[in-house]
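Progress note, sequence design subtask.
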C-alpha cells in the first residue's frame, strides 16, 4: 500500500527550473513628495490601495483634546491614480467645493455627500479598500458611519453608500474579497459584547447601504473583545480568519470561524512585542494598522509609538512586521526607521528625495495583492510610501540553517514525529534551483504546499502547522530538478 501511495505522489509533481538572483530585501519604490503638488498636504494617518499605484490617503490632524483622539482640526482624503513620487494626485472632496488640500492649513474636511445627504469626516483614523475601487472610512460622526468613496482616474468621489455603526468610536476597518465590511471599536469594555461588527457588503441583497432612509443594517456577526484599546483589523480573503490589534496589550489576536457560526479566539497564534522592543528614550511602541496577503500568506503589522515625535524618540522606531498567520511568528521586518537613517544619516529628514518618508510614524499598512506591494504612511512626514520586496516573498516562510553548499541533497525525518499540531522539516539542496515541498494525505491528495519557488544551495528548515487537519498518516515530498524524496509523518490528535 505504501509503495503504491509513493508512486501516486511521484506522478503528481512537476518541475520548473529558474534562476535565483534577487537580493530578497525590502526597499521603497517611491515616497510621495511632501510640500509639493503631489503631497497629501498634512499629517497622513492611513492609506488604502485599490490597485497598482492607485491609492487613497487619509489625513487626520492631531487631537485637540489630550484625552480624546476624535476631536481633530482637520480630516480629509487624498486620491492618487497611477502615482509615483511626483505625480498621480487627483481632485478630492475637501470642504465641499475645494478639491486640493491647502498645504499645512487647518480646517480642511472631506464631505461625503449624496443628493441631500451630507456627512463630514470627523475623527477618522483609518480607511480600507475593496476590489472594485471603493474606499471605506471609519468615521466618527454622531452615528459613527462607514462612509464609502470611489477612486476614479479623474477624482475621488462620494458614492450613495454609508452605514451607521452605533454610538461607539470606531477605528480599525477592513473589507474581505466578498465585500463584507469589518469594523472594530476603539475601546473594548465589559458593558458591551460587540466590539467587532461585520456588515454585509454594499451589493449584498437586502442591505440598506444606498437607501436614503436606510443605512441602518444590523451586523451579520459580532465579536466580544475584553477591555482594552484596539487600533487595527484585517481578515483573510473569505473572512474565516480575523486579526485584531490589541494595542493596549502590544499584541495581535486571531479569531477563527465564520459569519454564520461565530468566531473564537485562536490561542495557538501568538504575536506580542517583546519588553525590550522599544524606541529611544524607553518608549514602548505597539501594534497599529494591519493588512493580510493571501498568496503567499502573511499578516503585515504596522508597529510604532503613537503620537510621539522627535529624532531621539518616536522617529527612531517605526517598522512593519511580516508575520506567519498560523503561528504569529515574525518572518521578516520592514525597518522603516533604519532605512531612513541608512539613506540620510538622520532620523528626522523629510520626504523630498522620493525614497525616504522621514519622521517615521508608521500607523497603518495595506497590501496591493496583484503586485504584492506594501503601502504605508508617515504621519509626521506627510507622505505615502510604497515598499516592494526584491525577490520572492515565499522565501520568508523558510529558515536557512546554513548557506554552506552541502555535498548532496537530503530530506530529513520531521521532528517531532509523531506530532501535534506542528513539526519541523529540514532539507539540504546542493544546487540553486526550483524547490517544492508538499504535504499529502494517504489518498495522495495534496493538503498543503510549504515551498514552491527558487532557493539557493544550502540547508533549510520549515515548520508545518497541521492544526487544521485530522489526525492520521501524511507524506511530505521534496522535489528539485535533480532530486526527489518522500517521507512519512504521523499527526496525533
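Output:
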Amino acid at each position: 500500500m505504501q509503495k503504491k501511495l509513493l508512486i501516486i505522489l511521484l506522478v503528481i509533481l512537476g518541475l520548473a527550473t529558474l534562476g535565483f538572483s534577487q537580493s530578497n530585501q525590502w526597499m521603497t519604490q517611491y515616497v510621495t513628495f511632501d510640500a509639493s503638488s503631489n503631497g497629501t498636504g498634512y499629517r497622513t494617518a492611513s492609506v488604502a490601495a485599490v490597485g497598482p499605484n492607485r491609492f487613497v490617503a487619509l489625513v487626520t490632524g492631531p487631537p485637540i483634546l489630550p484625552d480624546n483622539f476624535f476631536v481633530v482640526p482637520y480630516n480629509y482624503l487624498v486620491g492618487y491614480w497611477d502615482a509615483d513620487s511626483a505625480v498621480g494626485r487627483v481632485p478630492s472632496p475637501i470642504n465641499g467645493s475645494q478639491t486640493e488640500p491647502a498645504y499645512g492649513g487647518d480646517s480642511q474636511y472631506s464631505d461625503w455627500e449624496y443628493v441631500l445627504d451630507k456627512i463630514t469626516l470627523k475623527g477618522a483614523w483609518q480607511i480600507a479598500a475593496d476590489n472594485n475601487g471603493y474606499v471605506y472610512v471609519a468615521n466618527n460622526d454622531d452615528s459613527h458611519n462607514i462612509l464609502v468613496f470611489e477612486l476614479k482616474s479623474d477624482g475621488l468621489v462620494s458614492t450613495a453608500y454609508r452605514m451607521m455603526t452605533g454610538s461607539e468610536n470606531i477605528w480599525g476597518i477592513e473589507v474581505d474579497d466578498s465585500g463584507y465590511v469589518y469594523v472594530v471599536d476603539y475601546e473594548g469594555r465589559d458593558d458591551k459584547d460587540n466590539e467587532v461588527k461585520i456588515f454585509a457588503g454594499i451589493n449584498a441583497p437586502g442591505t440598506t447601504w444606498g437607501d436614503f432612509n436606510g443605512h441602518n443594517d444590523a451586523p451579520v456577526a459580532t465579536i466580544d473583545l475584553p477591555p482594552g484599546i484596539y487600533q487595527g483589523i484585517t481578515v483573510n480573503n473569505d473572512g474565516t480568519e480575523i486579526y485584531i490589534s490589541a494595542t493596549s496589550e502590544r499584541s495581535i489576536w486571531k479569531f477563527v470561524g465564520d459569519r454564520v457560526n461565530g468566531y473564537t479566539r485562536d490561542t495557538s497564534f501568538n504575536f506580542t512585542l517583546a519588553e525590550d522592543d522599544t524606541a529611544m528614550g524607553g518608549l514602548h511602541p505597539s501594534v497599529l494598522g494591519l493588512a493580510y496577503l493571501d498568496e503567499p500568506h502573511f499578516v503585515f503589522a504596522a508597529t510604532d509609538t503613537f503620537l510621539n515625535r522627535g529624532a531621539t524618540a518616536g522617529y527612531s522606531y517605526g517598522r512593519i512586521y511580516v508575520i506567519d498567520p498560523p503561528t504569529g511568528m515574525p518572518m521578516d521586518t520592514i525597518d522603516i526607521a533604519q532605512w531612513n537613517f541608512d539613506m540620510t544619516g538622520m532620523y528626522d529628514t523629510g520626504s523630498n528625495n522620493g525614497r525616504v518618508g522621514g519622521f517615521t510614524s508608521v500607523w497603518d499598512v495595506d497590501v496591493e495583492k496583484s503586485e504584492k506591494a506594501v503601502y504605508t504612511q508617515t504621519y509626521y512626514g506627510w507622505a505615502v510610501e510604497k515598499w516592494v520586496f526584491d525577490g520572492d516573498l515565499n522565501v520568508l516562510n523558510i529558515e536557512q540553517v546554513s548557506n554552506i553548499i552541502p555535498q548532496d541533497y537530503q530530506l530529513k525525518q520531521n521532528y517531532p514525529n509523531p506530532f501535534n499540531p506542528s513539526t519541523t522539516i529540514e532539507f539540504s539542496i546542493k544546487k540553486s534551483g526550483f524547490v517544492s515541498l508538499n504535504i499529502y494525505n494517504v489518498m495522495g491528495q495534496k493538503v498543503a504546499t510549504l515551498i514552491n519557488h527558487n532557493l539557493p544551495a544550502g540547508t533549510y528548515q520549515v515548520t508545518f502547522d497541521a492544526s487544521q487537519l485530522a489526525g492520521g498518516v501524511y507524506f511530505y515530498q521534496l522535489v528539485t530538478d535533480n532530486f526527489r524524496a518522500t517521507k512519512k509523518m504521523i499527526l496525533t490528535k
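Confidence is low (pLDDT under 50) at residues 1-22. Work on this subtask will continue into the next period as scheduled.
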